[in-house]
Amino acid sequence: MVGLSEGVRGMAEALLKADGSGDEGRHDEALRVFFAEVFNRPEIVAEGAAFLARTYEEKEAWLAQRVGTPELVQEMATGQAMLTCLAAGEWVMQRDFTRLIRLADGMLAAKMHLKSEDCLVLMLAMASTLALVKQPRAVSLVNHVLECQKEGAEIDEGLLNEARQRLQIADVIGASNQATREMWDLRFLSPTKDWDWNGPQERQALRELGEWLTPEHAAASEFAKIVPVVWWDLWWVKSHQVEVVERSEEVAPWTGGLLSAEGPEMGGEFSGEEEGAVNEEQRLRLGWFLAGGVTGALAAVLLQVMAGGAGKEKVETVDSGEVGTVVRKEGSEAAVWCNEERERLAGELVHVGRLGAVKAAGWAENAGFLSGLTADLPSQSQMYRKMLALLHLDPPKDAETRMMVPRLLLRRGADEELVGLWEHCVEGQTGMRLEIASAAREALEQPSLTWNAEQRTRLQRLCEVNG
C-alpha cells in the first residue's frame, strides 16, 4: 500500500483481502464498493484507477467484465487512461462490440472534458476499432480529435491516418448489415489469412462490394488485399468495361444488373474473334456476383405484394405526450440530429432528380423506383438505403408512400442503424412516428429477423408510440 493516499488505502486493502479469500462473491462486492467510493471522488479517481490497472495486471479479463463506462469516463476526465486502455483492450480481443460502443458513447458525451494526449490517442484507437462496425461513432470520435488538433493539441498522425483509412473502407461497406460489417472487420484484422468465401454471407458481401466499390475509391487497394484474386480480376475487368461503355455514350441493354458484354467495341487490347471470346467468358464468369441486383429487385416486389394495402392501414392517433416513452435523449437534441442528417443526405442525393416527384406524387406512380427496381437506383446500391433514410427525415406527402418507406428500409437493413434512425425520427418529431410504430411491430413479428434483447426492447417502445 506504499504510495497510496489515505482515501484509497483502506478500500485497496479490503479489495486485496477479498481477492485472496477465494470467495468470488466477496471479491465482487469489494470491487463494487471500491468503484462507488473512489470513482465518486474526483480528487482520487486517477489514483484509484491506476491502482486497479497495476493490481489486476494478470487478471485483466476478470476486471474488464466488471468495470463500467461511468468509471472509465471518470478516469479519462482526469487526463489519464490506464484502466480504460486495459478494459478496452480486453473488449477488443473478445470482440465485445456492445461494451466498446457504450464506451464510445460515453467518450462522446463527455468529450469536452477529454482532451489530454492519452485520451485522444485512445479515441483514435477506438475510431479505428469501430469504423467498420459503427461508422457514425468512429466519425464523431475522429472529428473530436481534429477539433482538439485545431485548438493546439498534439495528435498521433499515424493513428489518425489509420482511422481515416478504416473509415474509407467503411464508406464502401457502410450499407451492409451489421453481421456483414463485422465479417469484413475480422478479415481486415488478418488480411493474409486464407479466408473461406464460399458461404452465403460471404457471397452476398462480394455481390455488394461489386456494386458499391469503384476503381478510383481510396480504399480499393485495401480490398484488393482481402478478396479472392480471381474475384478482384473479374471485378476490375467489369468496372473498366462499364467505364468504357459510359465514355462511348452508348448504353448497353439493361439485364437486371448486368451490362451486356456484346455492346460496342472496347477499343483496347482485343479485337475480332479474340474480343468476342473474352466478352463471352466475362459474361459467364461475372454473373455469379452480379446476380444480387436481380435478387434485391425480386425481394422488393415480394415486399410490395406482401404489404398489400399497407398504406390504407388505419392507425390510431397518438397524444404527443406519449412520445416520451421512447425518448432516450432530449427532444431538441434529436431534432438537431434529424435536421443535420437530412441536410447531409440531401447533399449526397442531390443528383437523384426523382426525389421531388416521390415526395409529391402517390405510391402507384413511384412504386418501382422506391422498391429499387429501376436502373438508376437499384435496391442493392448504397445510395438506395440513403434515399430511404432521407425520406424518413423529410417524409413524402402521400400516406401510402409514408407507410411503405420504413418497411422498405427494414428489408434493406434490419440492424442497429435502422433502430437508431427510427428512434431519432420519433424523438425529433419528423412526422413518421405512426408509420415507424407499424413497421416496428412488423420487425418484431418477422421470424426471419434477428434482434438482440436490447434492440427488441427498443422496438417494443417504438410500437408503444402508437398506443
Shape label: globular
Helix/strand order, N-terminal first = HHHHHHHHHHHHHHHHHHHHHHHH
Radius of gyration: 26 Å
Tell me about the biggest sheet?
none
Number of strands: 0
Helix/strand-derived class?
mainly alpha
Helicity level? 55-70%
The number of helical elements comes to: 24
Give the percentage of residues in beta strands: under 5%
Total domain modules = 3
Please mark out the parts with pLDDT under 50 across 5 or more consecutive residues, or reply none. Answer: 242-331
How far is the first residue's CA from the last residue's CA? 58 Å
- Mean pLDDT over the full residue set: 78
How would you describe the overall organization of this protein?
There is one protein chain. This protein is mainly alpha-helical and 467 residues long. It has 3 domains: 6-186; 194-290, no CATH class; 293-464, no CATH class. The chain has helices at residues 6-20, 24-38, 45-55, 60-64, 69-77, 82-94, 97-109, 117-130, 135-150, 157-173, 178-189, 200-212, 220-224, 229-247, 272-290, 292-307, 331-348, 355-360, 363-370, 382-393, 399-412, 416-427, 433-445, 453-464. It is globular and about 75 Å long. Residues 242-331 have low confidence and may be disordered.
Give a topology summary.
Blueprint: H1 6-20, H2 24-38, H3 45-55, H4 60-64, H5 69-77, H6 82-94, H7 97-109, H8 117-130, H9 135-150, H10 157-173, H11 178-189, H12 200-212, H13 220-224, H14 229-247, H15 272-290, H16 292-307, H17 331-348, H18 355-360, H19 363-370, H20 382-393, H21 399-412, H22 416-427, H23 433-445, H24 453-464
Helix pairs in contact: 1-2, 5-7, 7-8, 7-9, 8-9, 8-10, 9-10, 16-21, 17-20, 20-21, 21-23, 22-24, 23-24
